[in-house]
Design brief:
Strand content: 25-35%
Structural class: alpha+beta
Shape: rod-shaped
Largest sheet: 5 strands, mixed
Strand order of the largest sheet: 1-2-8-7-4
Helix content: 25-40%
């Protein structure tokens, strides 16, 4: 073991006199006696190491040198098999004896000079019956707390590692060997042992024995530790935060980071925690933008001790605070620890912009769907008017009529003057004269003497649409209700087609004389629904001339109810209600215009821009290269104006 040499100056002088006498002729730099002494016992290995080969003496990486060892009589020491081994700055005694108890001289020579140093080896006989060594080192353990002992032979192990020599260390408590992982002991590395929850015993002796083979000789060296168990303790602080990390903060906002340390102890230890940045301590002054605050509390349980915390606070983070290491240092009598964190600017928050964009897209989508649902008719008509080239010209499909107008005939159920006026006058006035559509109207365009079935079949095939005009009483008759079984189901489609065809053939075979007054109306309805629902070759537009109640709708043919549910109906009676509400305003406007000598504008009910006529034009075929005239010629406007009766 290496300790201070407690020898008298006289003994040192007498021993060194002979050595120095032999080297008086060399003018070497004297580094005197090395402060530490190597202790050993007979039979063990001892190692003397010169400290002359160091940067503090000279730069030996570029200067050649050699080292020579001498004993106390000035005799050069050479290798002795099984006894002495000289390896440059290290002198090995492979089997120490009591005769080796003396001082030794090492001289380091270079081309420019020499250096000399004295080293002392003390060999002592161990006490009989005891396993520990005469010389002991002192280390401390704490009662009921895990502690660690370090073997004092690290200089031996480091030297052996430099030689690439393997070795082993055995630990003993008194004379009893300690096994790793048993009895509350565990080996940490080559030279350390962990003792879990040291007991109350005082002055426990632990011995570590290093065994290795050098120059073919297997030897060992041992050191004894006098482990003193203390009741009260102040262990080295354990720094938990900060953990040498990077933290992101948002500029312009406040920020705080704590420095947390745990000190295992029984009583309140003397601990100081400081924050510093760029070697400048941060004060506790809360009036400053960056300041600190601290607190502490006790923890009881298996690991007794105290927590100490000091918080570093930023009232407002600025650009100058980023990319700087903020260091927390915990200082105590038993040791100190420090950790740091680096403040970085926070990454851009992409969640908020993405959320806003997605919300905007959803709102835009819902708004677009809502607007399209409410203004679908206007949007489609606008596209037809502005981009007519996007649509095919229907005039080239071989059809003669844009629409076949089916309406109640005289003596039919649902026939009336208003119905006839709408079918023969109002409808063609707007769709034909104003918008340029070609209509086939039964009762106006039929050829004299032509069979009803042939007329209906021929003109339906020549039409692109069917405008089915009806009132509440149009379909309430025996014949309509008995032939309302046209279904949309694919399972009965063929039966329905056969039934419909048979009905039409039977009606034709009976001749015109046997057909009742509502035959044409029935044939038109059946044939149109057959093509619309079963074949899908013709589009039927339902035009309600008066409001239909649920009870009246229940008496309609199933095919009409199904089509009405699927695509809805264009309601003329709503247009009449709007017209009635504006009668008073129109009367006053007309009187004012007549007084001013102006012509009367087109009636709202006949204006193509009214809601009803927009829906009609929406369902009509696209006029690829024709545009619906928004305003009529002044002469036509005068002719079509509705005369309002004065009250």
């Amino acid at each position: 073991m290496v300790l201070r040499l407690p020898l008298t100056s006289l003994l040192i002088f007498l021993r060194m006199y002979g050595i120095c006498k032999g080297f008086e002729q060399e003018n070497c730099t004297n580094h005197k006696l090395r402060f530490e002494t190597v202790y050993s016992v007979p039979g063990e290995v001892a190692m003397l190491t010169s400290t002359l080969v160091s940067p503090s003496v000279s730069n030996f990486t570029d200067v050649p040198y050699n080292i020579t060892w001498y004993d106390s009589k000035g005799k050069e020491i050479i290798n002795q098999t099984g006894r002495v081994l000289v390896l440059e700055e290290t002198l090995w005694f492979l089997n120490t004896t009591l005769d080796d108890n003396k001082e030794y001289m090492t001289i380091l020579r270079t081309p420019s000079g020499c250096h000399k140093q004295r080293l002392n080896l003390t060999v002592e006989q161990p006490e009989a019956g005891k396993c520990e060594r005469p010389r002991k080192t002192h280390q401390f353990l704490t009662k009921d707390v895990s502690g660690m002992l370090s073997c004092p032979l690290r200089n031996y192990t480091n030297k052996l590692k430099s030689y690439n020599i393997t070795f082993s260390i055995k630990w003993y408590r008194g004379c009893e060997r300690i096994e790793d992982g048993t009895g509350g002991y565990s080996f940490l590395d080559d030279t350390k042992i962990m003792i879990h929850k040291a007991g109350p015993e005082k002055n426990i002796f632990y011995t570590c024995t290093l065994t290795f083979t050098l120059a073919g000789i297997t030897g060992s060296v041992s050191e004894t530790i006098n482990a003193t168990v203390k009741e009260e303790y102040y262990s080295v602080p354990q720094l938990q935060e900060p953990a040498n990390e990077t933290i992101r903060a948002q500029i312009g906002f406040n920020f705080s980071k704590r420095c947390l340390a745990f000190v295992p102890s029984v009583e309140i230890p003397s601990v100081s925690i400081v924050w510093k940045v760029r070697e400048t301590f941060i004060e506790r002054n809360q009036l400053k933008r960056v300041y600190t605050g601290n607190k502490s509390w006790r923890q009881d349980g298996p690991n007794k001790g105290y927590f100490f915390e000091r918080v570093l606070m930023f009232s407002e983070v600025k650009e100058e605070d980023f990319h700087i290491n903020y260091i927390c240092e915990v200082i105590s009598p038993s040791g100190s620890r420090q950790g740091y964190f680096t403040l970085l600017p926070e990454d851009p928050n992409i969640i908020l912009p993405i959320g806003l964009v997605l919300s905007g897209v959803i709102v835009l989508f819902i708004s677009s769907v809502t607007v399209y649902y409410l203004l679908k008719v206007d949007i489609v008509l606008w596209f037809r008017r502005v981009f007519p080239f996007l649509y095919q010209n229907k005039d080239l499909d071989g059809k003669l009529y844009d629409a076949y107008v089916a309406h109640p005939q005289p003596c039919d159920a649902g026939f009336g003057k208003e119905v006839e006026k709408f079918a023969l006058h109002t409808l063609p006035e707007v769709l034909e004269n104003t918008c340029g559509y070609q209509l086939f109207i039964a009762g106006r365009d039929c050829l004299p003497g032509q069979a009803i079935v042939d007329s209906v079949e021929e003109n339906l095939q020549a039409s692109r649409r069917v405008l089915l005009l009806y009132t509440a009483s149009t379909f309430i008759s025996k014949r309509h209700t008995s032939n309302n079984q046209i279904s949309k189901s694919s399972d009965i489609r063929e039966k329905s087609e056969i039934k419909t065809t048979d009905n039409i053939i039977n009606m034709t075979n009976h001749g015109d004389k046997e057909v009742s007054s509502d035959t044409r109306q029935q044939i038109e309805c059946v044939a149109a629904m057959h093509r619309a629902l079963l074949e899908g070759s013709l589009k039927v537009v339902l035009v309600e001339l008066e409001e239909i109640t649920p009870a009246q709708l229940a008496l309609f043919p199933e095919s009409v109810r199904q089509l009405r549910k699927k695509q809805g109906a264009v309601r003329w009676w709503k247009n009449l209600e709007r017209r009635q509400r504006s009668v008073t305003c129109n009367m006053r406007r007309k009187e004012d215009e007549e007084k001013d000598g102006q012509e009367t504008p087109l009636s709202p009910s006949l204006s193509p821009s009214s809601r009803f006529w927009k829906e009609m034009r929406y369902h009509m075929p696209v006029r690829g290269k024709k545009r619906c005239v928004r305003q009529m010629d002044k002469s036509v406007a005068v002719k079509m104006s509705i005369t309002v009766d004065k009250p």
